[in-house]
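Re: the request from the purification team.
They wanted to know what the chain is likely to look like in 3D before they choose a buffer screen. I agreed to run a prediction and write the result into the notebook, where they can find it.
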Amino acid sequence: MKLYVLSKDVAVANEAQILNNLFANGLEHLHLRKPETSNDEVADLLSQIEPAYYDRIALHQFHDLAEEFGIRRLHFNTAHRKHVGQHELLKYSDAGYTLSTSVHTWGEIKGLENFNALFYSPVFDSLSKPGYAGTLTNDFKLGDNYTDRLIALGGISIDNIIQTKTMGFRAAAVLGAIWNDPSTALKNFVDLKKHLQECNSSHPRSANTILTKPY
């Protein structure tokens, strides 16, 4: 099971240093989500991140920065996806970009074949958005047709991340579990990664499972 980290939506003190440390300690997938900041602020943050890590970053906003920094992963929230349209998305895909998007209902999934990954949320009650309640029951199971692209998001912590694997998700994304206390972000990540590795070793993914669109 893979682990994704979403950035905090606002600037964090020493954020570039924290992110470099997360990457150095095994972070493979960072979704840089900064709706409350400017293009210049995100560019400045990226300039402080080691270039060797750019291939691990997906941009949620300011996609024009992707070419400047050699970033090949782009994320589209629901509104942005609908605004851009299928033709533009196909151009990104044909140009070699890896695309992901957000979904909040199962009905949204149809027609999203151009996307390599779909972040479904909220799975559990949100840790970063008080009052944002989870939508799945504890006994929920994904159908086989969905497991290769769906990533669980929302309220995921060290206490319940393995439950998302039991539900059938191939990956989980965390935000509040890392950033609710930025001063312990590195420890939070290392502890979560270690826990996930131990659980993956105990319950390895079936060798017969094929990811049709790796992300």
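For the purification team: The two ends are 12 Å apart (CA to CA).
Please add any questions underneath this entry.
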